[in-house]
Design goal:
By secondary structure, this protein is mainly beta. The chain is 4% helix and 47% strand. The chain has one domain: Jelly Rolls (Sandwich), CATH 2.60.120. The protein has 1 helix and 13 strands.
Length: 178
Amino acid sequence: MSKKTKPRPIEVVDITSPAMNSMLGTYFIGQTDVLNFGNKCKAWGGIINPSNSGVNLYFDIFTITNFSTQNFIGEIWLNANPPNNSTLSPTVTSSNQTIIPPPKPKAKMEYADHITDHPTNGVNIFGRIVASNSTLVSDSHKGSIIIGPGGSFSILLTPLEPQAIMGTIVLTWWEEKI
């Protein structure tokens, strides 16, 4: 006679909860200023995880807004070096505004416009066409893109036509100590 064993229940754990990280004060939102590009120039925005940060950065959502009448391409890059003339974004905040003072991220959001070169190093993982007068919103990556110290997540905005274009980039992420 054979002995039947009961199957053990499978435990499902959601380790990618932006809401939980928001409650902890480790979920951040950042935006570039309005970026001007076109006429053979590009624009760039991204999150830089400093090599001495002591955190892993878990990327969640990006949005790209196109204020112009021309379509353009948004190229997503991992671990590319930022342009030399990039500016630190002043509009980065914790999503949990109940914590006083609000937590500050270890990662830095930077941006640059009127650039002529492609990013150096890194890998272009995909591109998206951003339609005129619209906002492209990514699906939530729920932390599936993990950037360690010294790495980056960035978006290069590349015109398809020579006209002047204006746009912005918004990025959301959370950080966990290593």
